[in-house]
Specification:
The chain is α+β, with helices and mostly antiparallel strands. Helix content is 19%, strand content 48%. A hairpin with a 4-residue loop joins strand 7 and strand 8.
Length: 151
């Protein structure tokens, strides 16, 4: 029995240290994945301006008085110095007070944070929870009214 205890007193610390070294080697080998960059130039095709920030994914929920007002998802967002933001591959859900929802999807949207102006372009699909559907190439919101001049 003493021989077994003496052997284990030597082998267990060695096995423990070997296990820790194995974890360290494995972590260094795999570690964090390298950051991939899209070598696409950062530009805003609708509004000219110098990019101030670029986010590869964007997901935002806005609430008013504790109730969810809207949820925005976009694949890429570019913030310009002139206050305009460009969103690509956009999915927007608007929650109304009466329980209705509006789902808007489009290729690209731009909005001005201060004035609340928005331009939505490219395969715009608007669907409401009461069954109304609208497909167009562009929508514009001037801060108060939504308009469409393209069939």
């Amino acid at each position: 029995m003493q021989r077994t205890v003496k052997t284990l007193r030597i082998l267990l610390p060695i096995a423990f240290v070997a296990f820790i070294v194995l974890i360290g080697i494995s972590y260094k080998k795999h570690g964090k994945p390298p950051r991939t960059t899209t070598d696409q130039p950062v530009k805003s095709p609708i509004r000219p301006g110098k990019p101030q920030m670029v986010l590869e994914t964007f997901d935002d929920t806005q609430t008013i008085g504790g109730k969810m007002a809207l949820h925005i998802k976009a694949r890429r967002t570019i913030g310009l110095e002139n206050g305009w933001y460009t969103l690509e591959d956009v999915h927007l859900t608007i929650y109304r007070n009466n329980g209705q929802t509006f789902e808007v999807t489009c290729d690209q949207a731009q909005f001005q944070k201060e004035t609340k102006q928005a331009e939505i372009n490219g395969k715009v699909q608007l669907t409401s929870s009461d069954g109304m559907e609208l497909s167009t190439e562009a929508l514009k919101f001037d801060g108060e009214q939504l308009g469409n001049s393209i069939p």
